[in-house]
Specification:
Layout lengths: L12 E7 L5 E7 L5 E13 L5 E3 L3 E8 L3 E8 L7 E10 L2 E9 L10 E3 L4 E6 L1
Antiparallel strand pairs: 1-2, 1-10, 2-6, 3-4, 3-5, 3-7, 7-8, 9-10
């Protein structure tokens, strides 16, 4: 049962969204820990309401990586500014030394913007960072 599964915290996984070419933005996963990560699954989706108050959502995208080195960065996907008015949610599940970890990142509406960018050393560029 899910209640029997222990999900310890891991603060070494971060998400960053950085501006790129052609008015697009890139989504990155950052492993600032000293452990290699195995079987990394990232799902992304957007959800919220339109100006009429009706529920809207994006498609769910899934990305899988066999392993993710320590102190490294993985580009996950491109994200279009047309969805920045939505909650942009990323679920990340992975294994470290036989232990399952699960983490949820939510970029709230309008939080992905140039004014919220800070310098992220592992990316060597400015990005909106979610720790």
């Amino acid at each position: 049962m899910k209640k029997d599964i222990e999900f310890p915290k891991n603060e070494n996984i971060l998400m960053a969204i950085a501006p790129s070419e052609f008015e697009q933005w890139d989504v990155f996963l950052i492993n600032r820990g000293s452990e290699k990560i195995d079987n990394l699954l990232v799902t992304s989706s957007g959800y919220g309401y339109d100006e009429k108050g009706e529920k809207i959502s994006t498609s769910t995208l899934r990305h899988f990586y066999d392993n993710f080195a320590s102190n490294s960065v993985q580009e996950v996907e491109k994200i279009d500014p047309s969805v920045f008015h939505l909650n942009n949610e990323f679920w990340v599940s992975y294994w470290i030394d036989g232990q399952l970890y699960d983490r949820r990142f939510v970029f709230v509406p309008e939080s992905i913007s140039l004014k919220n960018c800070i310098f992220v050393s592992l990316l060597d560029k400015e990005a909106v960072l979610h720790a």
